[in-house]
Amino acid sequence: MAPAEPRRENSGPVGPPLLDLTIDNITPNTVRINSQSDDARLTYLLSRLVTHLHDFARETRLSTDEWMTGLEFLIACGKICSDVRNEFILLSDTLGLSLLLDNINHPKPAGATEGSVLGPFHTHDAPLLENGASMTSDPAGEPMLAICTVKDTAGNPIQGIKIDIWETDSSGHYDVQHSDRNEPSERCVMMSDAEGKFWFKGLKPVSYPIPHDGPVGKLLERLGRHPWRPAHVHFMFEKEGWDKLIT
After folding, report:
1. What is the spatial distance between Cα 159 and Cα 150, in angstroms, rounded to a whole number?
2. How far is CA 228 from CA 45, 122, 169, 221, in A?
3. pTM for this structure?
Protein backbone atom coordinates (compact mmCIF):
# COMPACT_ATOMS: atom_id res chain seq x y z
CA MET A 1 0.00 0.00 0.00
CA ALA A 2 1.18 3.50 -0.76
CA PRO A 3 1.45 5.95 2.14
CA ALA A 4 -1.52 8.30 2.45
CA GLU A 5 -1.10 11.88 1.31
CA PRO A 6 -0.98 14.39 4.18
CA ARG A 7 -4.39 15.89 4.78
CA ARG A 8 -4.65 19.52 3.63
CA GLU A 9 -6.88 21.65 5.83
CA ASN A 10 -9.05 24.35 4.22
CA SER A 11 -7.84 23.47 0.74
CA GLY A 12 -9.22 25.67 -2.02
CA PRO A 13 -8.19 27.73 -5.04
CA VAL A 14 -4.55 28.74 -4.90
CA GLY A 15 -3.88 32.40 -5.70
CA PRO A 16 -0.68 33.99 -6.89
CA PRO A 17 2.24 33.82 -4.44
CA LEU A 18 2.59 36.84 -2.23
CA LEU A 19 5.75 38.57 -1.09
CA ASP A 20 6.57 39.76 2.40
CA LEU A 21 4.53 42.95 2.48
CA THR A 22 6.10 46.37 2.92
CA ILE A 23 4.89 49.95 2.43
CA ASP A 24 6.49 49.90 -1.00
CA ASN A 25 5.23 46.57 -2.38
CA ILE A 26 1.81 46.18 -0.75
CA THR A 27 0.12 48.00 -3.65
CA PRO A 28 1.31 45.74 -6.50
CA ASN A 29 0.66 42.71 -4.29
CA THR A 30 -2.92 43.83 -3.63
CA VAL A 31 -3.47 44.51 -7.32
CA ARG A 32 -2.03 41.07 -8.13
CA ILE A 33 -4.27 39.16 -5.73
CA ASN A 34 -7.32 41.08 -7.02
CA SER A 35 -6.51 40.42 -10.71
CA GLN A 36 -7.89 36.88 -11.00
CA SER A 37 -11.33 37.76 -12.39
CA ASP A 38 -12.42 37.09 -15.97
CA ASP A 39 -13.97 40.58 -15.97
CA ALA A 40 -11.20 42.73 -17.47
CA ARG A 41 -13.01 46.01 -16.78
CA LEU A 42 -13.57 45.12 -13.11
CA THR A 43 -9.92 44.12 -12.76
CA TYR A 44 -8.78 47.40 -14.31
CA LEU A 45 -11.10 49.60 -12.23
CA LEU A 46 -10.15 47.92 -8.96
CA SER A 47 -6.43 48.04 -9.75
CA ARG A 48 -6.60 51.79 -10.38
CA LEU A 49 -8.76 52.34 -7.29
CA VAL A 50 -6.31 50.45 -5.09
CA THR A 51 -3.34 52.27 -6.61
CA HIS A 52 -4.78 55.75 -6.08
CA LEU A 53 -6.14 54.88 -2.63
CA HIS A 54 -2.77 53.56 -1.48
CA ASP A 55 -0.97 56.58 -2.97
CA PHE A 56 -3.38 58.85 -1.08
CA ALA A 57 -2.61 57.07 2.19
CA ARG A 58 1.16 57.30 1.61
CA GLU A 59 1.08 60.91 0.41
CA THR A 60 -0.96 62.15 3.37
CA ARG A 61 0.62 59.79 5.93
CA LEU A 62 -2.95 58.84 6.82
CA SER A 63 -3.36 57.91 10.47
CA THR A 64 -5.39 54.96 11.74
CA ASP A 65 -7.68 57.34 13.64
CA GLU A 66 -8.31 59.38 10.48
CA TRP A 67 -9.10 56.26 8.46
CA MET A 68 -11.48 55.00 11.16
CA THR A 69 -13.20 58.41 11.12
CA GLY A 70 -13.65 58.01 7.38
CA LEU A 71 -15.08 54.52 7.75
CA GLU A 72 -17.47 55.67 10.47
CA PHE A 73 -18.56 58.53 8.18
CA LEU A 74 -19.38 56.06 5.38
CA ILE A 75 -21.24 53.80 7.82
CA ALA A 76 -23.31 56.81 8.95
CA CYS A 77 -24.09 57.65 5.31
CA GLY A 78 -25.39 54.12 4.79
CA LYS A 79 -27.53 54.17 7.93
CA ILE A 80 -29.38 57.35 6.94
CA CYS A 81 -30.17 56.16 3.41
CA SER A 82 -33.73 55.15 2.55
CA ASP A 83 -35.92 54.58 -0.50
CA VAL A 84 -36.33 58.35 -0.87
CA ARG A 85 -32.98 59.60 0.45
CA ASN A 86 -29.55 58.62 -0.82
CA GLU A 87 -26.77 60.19 1.21
CA PHE A 88 -24.12 58.73 -1.08
CA ILE A 89 -25.51 60.60 -4.11
CA LEU A 90 -25.43 63.74 -1.98
CA LEU A 91 -21.80 62.99 -1.07
CA SER A 92 -20.90 62.42 -4.71
CA ASP A 93 -22.48 65.76 -5.61
CA THR A 94 -20.66 67.70 -2.89
CA LEU A 95 -17.31 66.18 -3.90
CA GLY A 96 -17.83 67.30 -7.51
CA LEU A 97 -17.69 63.69 -8.70
CA SER A 98 -21.24 63.57 -10.10
CA LEU A 99 -20.65 66.56 -12.38
CA LEU A 100 -17.24 65.25 -13.45
CA LEU A 101 -18.76 61.90 -14.45
CA ASP A 102 -21.53 63.65 -16.37
CA ASN A 103 -18.95 65.66 -18.30
CA ILE A 104 -16.90 62.52 -19.03
CA ASN A 105 -19.88 60.45 -20.17
CA HIS A 106 -21.88 63.22 -21.83
CA PRO A 107 -19.44 65.72 -23.38
CA LYS A 108 -21.27 68.67 -24.90
CA PRO A 109 -20.43 70.22 -28.28
CA ALA A 110 -20.23 73.98 -28.69
CA GLY A 111 -23.63 75.63 -28.42
CA ALA A 112 -25.21 72.80 -26.42
CA THR A 113 -26.77 73.29 -23.00
CA GLU A 114 -24.38 72.28 -20.24
CA GLY A 115 -25.31 69.36 -18.04
CA SER A 116 -25.88 69.26 -14.31
CA VAL A 117 -26.27 66.62 -11.61
CA LEU A 118 -29.32 64.41 -11.25
CA GLY A 119 -29.47 65.08 -7.52
CA PRO A 120 -30.88 62.76 -4.86
CA PHE A 121 -34.58 63.56 -5.29
CA HIS A 122 -35.48 62.32 -8.77
CA THR A 123 -38.17 59.61 -8.76
CA HIS A 124 -39.66 57.29 -11.36
CA ASP A 125 -43.30 57.80 -10.42
CA ALA A 126 -43.93 61.23 -11.97
CA PRO A 127 -47.20 61.33 -13.97
CA LEU A 128 -47.26 61.91 -17.73
CA LEU A 129 -49.11 65.21 -18.26
CA GLU A 130 -50.45 67.01 -21.31
CA ASN A 131 -49.06 70.39 -22.28
CA GLY A 132 -50.52 73.18 -20.15
CA ALA A 133 -51.27 70.95 -17.16
CA SER A 134 -50.26 71.77 -13.58
CA MET A 135 -47.67 69.62 -11.82
CA THR A 136 -48.14 71.18 -8.38
CA SER A 137 -50.67 70.73 -5.59
CA ASP A 138 -49.11 73.41 -3.36
CA PRO A 139 -51.46 76.42 -3.00
CA ALA A 140 -48.93 78.49 -1.06
CA GLY A 141 -46.30 79.02 -3.74
CA GLU A 142 -46.12 81.76 -6.37
CA PRO A 143 -47.67 80.37 -9.59
CA MET A 144 -45.42 79.95 -12.62
CA LEU A 145 -46.18 79.24 -16.25
CA ALA A 146 -43.12 77.75 -17.99
CA ILE A 147 -43.11 77.82 -21.81
CA CYS A 148 -40.16 75.90 -23.24
CA THR A 149 -38.73 74.75 -26.57
CA VAL A 150 -36.27 71.92 -27.21
CA LYS A 151 -33.90 72.53 -30.12
CA ASP A 152 -30.78 70.92 -31.53
CA THR A 153 -27.48 72.79 -31.77
CA ALA A 154 -28.49 74.06 -35.23
CA GLY A 155 -31.66 75.64 -33.80
CA ASN A 156 -34.11 73.06 -35.19
CA PRO A 157 -36.99 72.03 -32.91
CA ILE A 158 -37.04 68.39 -31.77
CA GLN A 159 -40.34 66.53 -31.53
CA GLY A 160 -41.05 63.60 -29.23
CA ILE A 161 -38.54 64.38 -26.52
CA LYS A 162 -39.43 62.89 -23.12
CA ILE A 163 -38.93 65.60 -20.51
CA ASP A 164 -38.75 64.71 -16.83
CA ILE A 165 -39.40 67.82 -14.69
CA TRP A 166 -39.18 68.24 -10.90
CA GLU A 167 -38.80 71.00 -8.33
CA THR A 168 -39.44 71.74 -4.65
CA ASP A 169 -42.65 73.05 -3.15
CA SER A 170 -42.93 76.58 -1.73
CA SER A 171 -41.23 75.50 1.51
CA GLY A 172 -38.12 74.35 -0.34
CA HIS A 173 -38.84 70.63 0.12
CA TYR A 174 -39.28 67.93 -2.51
CA ASP A 175 -42.40 65.81 -2.17
CA VAL A 176 -40.40 62.76 -1.07
CA GLN A 177 -39.11 64.69 1.95
CA HIS A 178 -42.63 64.81 3.41
CA SER A 179 -43.53 61.79 5.54
CA ASP A 180 -47.21 62.05 4.55
CA ARG A 181 -46.52 61.90 0.78
CA ASN A 182 -49.31 59.96 -0.92
CA GLU A 183 -48.64 60.83 -4.55
CA PRO A 184 -46.12 62.77 -6.66
CA SER A 185 -46.28 66.56 -6.60
CA GLU A 186 -44.10 69.27 -8.17
CA ARG A 187 -42.96 66.73 -10.74
CA CYS A 188 -44.19 65.41 -14.07
CA VAL A 189 -43.20 63.95 -17.43
CA MET A 190 -44.06 65.68 -20.73
CA MET A 191 -43.41 65.19 -24.44
CA SER A 192 -42.31 67.95 -26.83
CA ASP A 193 -44.73 68.67 -29.70
CA ALA A 194 -44.05 69.06 -33.43
CA GLU A 195 -42.52 72.47 -32.79
CA GLY A 196 -40.34 71.15 -29.95
CA LYS A 197 -42.48 72.99 -27.41
CA PHE A 198 -43.82 71.99 -24.02
CA TRP A 199 -45.40 74.11 -21.30
CA PHE A 200 -46.59 73.52 -17.78
CA LYS A 201 -47.82 75.20 -14.61
CA GLY A 202 -45.65 74.94 -11.52
CA LEU A 203 -44.21 77.13 -8.79
CA LYS A 204 -41.69 79.92 -9.06
CA PRO A 205 -38.58 78.14 -7.70
CA VAL A 206 -37.24 78.99 -4.26
CA SER A 207 -33.76 78.52 -2.85
CA TYR A 208 -33.39 75.73 -0.31
CA PRO A 209 -30.74 73.86 1.69
CA ILE A 210 -29.75 70.32 0.83
CA PRO A 211 -30.54 67.88 3.65
CA HIS A 212 -27.91 68.84 6.20
CA ASP A 213 -29.09 66.83 9.20
CA GLY A 214 -26.89 63.90 8.21
CA PRO A 215 -23.18 63.12 7.85
CA VAL A 216 -22.79 65.06 4.57
CA GLY A 217 -24.30 68.17 6.18
CA LYS A 218 -21.90 67.83 9.10
CA LEU A 219 -19.01 67.49 6.65
CA LEU A 220 -20.04 70.70 4.88
CA GLU A 221 -20.11 72.47 8.23
CA ARG A 222 -16.61 71.22 9.06
CA LEU A 223 -15.44 72.45 5.64
CA GLY A 224 -16.94 75.91 6.18
CA ARG A 225 -19.46 75.42 3.36
CA HIS A 226 -23.14 76.38 3.49
CA PRO A 227 -25.83 73.88 2.38
CA TRP A 228 -27.93 76.28 0.28
CA ARG A 229 -28.77 75.80 -3.40
CA PRO A 230 -30.03 78.59 -5.68
CA ALA A 231 -33.63 78.45 -6.88
CA HIS A 232 -33.97 76.06 -9.84
CA VAL A 233 -36.09 73.52 -11.71
CA HIS A 234 -34.68 70.14 -12.81
CA PHE A 235 -35.09 68.95 -16.41
CA MET A 236 -34.06 65.62 -17.93
CA PHE A 237 -34.38 65.22 -21.71
CA GLU A 238 -34.38 61.78 -23.35
CA LYS A 239 -34.98 60.43 -26.84
CA GLU A 240 -33.58 57.41 -28.62
CA GLY A 241 -30.65 58.42 -30.80
CA TRP A 242 -29.91 61.53 -28.76
CA ASP A 243 -27.56 62.01 -25.83
CA LYS A 244 -29.46 62.35 -22.56
CA LEU A 245 -29.33 65.81 -21.00
CA ILE A 246 -29.84 66.59 -17.31
CA THR A 247 -29.86 70.30 -16.55
Report:
1. 8
2. 34, 18, 15, 12
3. 0.77
